[in-house]
Amino acid sequence: MHKNMTRADFLRLSGATALVVAPALLGLSGCNKPTATNGAASGSKLQVLASFYPMADFAQKIGGDKIEVKTLVPTGTEPHDWEPSTSDMVRFTDAKLLVYNGAGMEHWVDDTLKSLGSNAPEALAASDGITLLEAAKTDPEHEHEKEHDHKEEEHDHDHGAYDPHVWLDPQNAKAEMKNIMNSLVKLDSANKDTYTANFAKWEAECDKLDAEFAEQLKTTSQKTVVVSHAAFGYLCNRYGLTQYSIGDIDAEAEPDAKRMAEIADYVKKNKVTTIFSEELVSPKVAKAIAEEAGAKMEEFNPLEGLSDDEIAAGEDYFSVMRSNLKKLVGALS
């Protein structure tokens, strides 16, 4: 301390210096962020950010103990209309890879990554390369959905034009896991053997699950699945079923009274015994239609999010899909 400087002057000067130095240190820490070729820092796990549950589950399965996965959409939250808050932005800058579904599911991705600029993580639309279905029509006269090749980036398509729920077809889930594997290998080539071995394991599980669905659903007498939310087009398309939805791609959309009456009539005429609702969507409309049509209610899980209790109990993509299969067979037999 200078002999003519008071203690108060010194403290004021020290505080001012800290305000100048702190941003500089933050900038240096950003510059020292590991490059894509270096992968995770020595002795640490590769930081992966996932948009919502199935992306987190798939990433963890492929990455194993070499990565740390954090999920953006909280448990119990419907992901269609979720978007990141200001406080979430730090999570993006801390990550090396963002895994999101794409196909219009996460409308916030492009703007968020653009706003982060050079601080944005690598980003993977896990649905890249998957053949997409057009967004389901709720009119039964349009129940056959058209397919389109999805060879371009998700943001090249009009929002809402396609059904984003690709993961509910086990073969599409396998394709998403493969895309995740390729991204992890690119970012962290030192652990390539781990990522490829994990993919081989879960690839086989996807094929096994696909075979179970195909075998158990091929002999059911009923082929129409009435659901509250048009999330099951890929599953139905894979196994020769028809999805008839109360709502549309937007899980929160509700039909008017005329539409509800039409659905009840459809259920009666087609001798549908079960109407499927979801945990993250209000069941009141589906319940009203079921009561009017004399059908029962059953919960069907589109795997858009699991509860903390379900995750703690060891539930995952495969266990929930097998539970869905059991319910489907019971409703359609």
Explain this structure to me?
With 333 residues, the protein is of the alpha/beta class. The chain folds into two domains: 46-147 and 154-211, Nitrogenase molybdenum iron protein domain (Rossmann fold, 3-Layer(aba) Sandwich), CATH 3.40.50.1980; 219-332, Rossmann fold (3-Layer(aba) Sandwich), CATH 3.40.50.1980. The protein has helices at 7-31, 53-63, 89-94, 109-116, 170-187, 192-217, 233-238, 257-269, 284-293, 308-312, 317-332, and strands at residues 46-50, 67-71, 97-100, 122-125, 132-133, 147-148, 224-227, 242-245, 274-277, 296-299. It has a four-stranded parallel β-sheet. A four-stranded parallel β-sheet has the order 8-7-9-10, with helices on both faces. Strands 5-6 form a two-stranded antiparallel sheet. Helix 4 links the parallel strand 3 (97-100) and strand 4 (122-125). Helix 8 (257-269) packs across helix 9 (284-293). The chain is globular, with a radius of gyration of 24 Å. The N and C termini lie far apart (86 Å). Residues 1-38 and 138-159 have low confidence and may be disordered.
Spatial separation of the terminal alpha carbons: 86 Å
Order of helices and strands: HEHEHEHEEEHHEHEHEHEHH
> Tell me about the biggest sheet?
4 strands, parallel
How are strands sequenced across the largest beta sheet?
2-1-3-4
What is the CA-based Rg, rounded?
A: 24 Å
State the secondary-structure class: alpha/beta
Q: What does the overall shape look like?
A: globular
Number of strands: 10
State the name of the first-level CATH class of the largest domain.
Alpha Beta
Percent helix, as a range, is 40-55%
- The count of domains is 2
CATH architecture label of the largest domain: 3-Layer(aba) Sandwich
State the low-pLDDT regions, or none. Answer: 1-38, 138-159
Write out the CATH superfamily name of the largest domain: Nitrogenase molybdenum iron protein domain
Taken as a percent bin, the fraction of beta residues is 5-15%
- CATH structural fold name of the largest domain: Rossmann fold
Q: Report the total helices.
A: 11
Rounded average pLDDT = 84
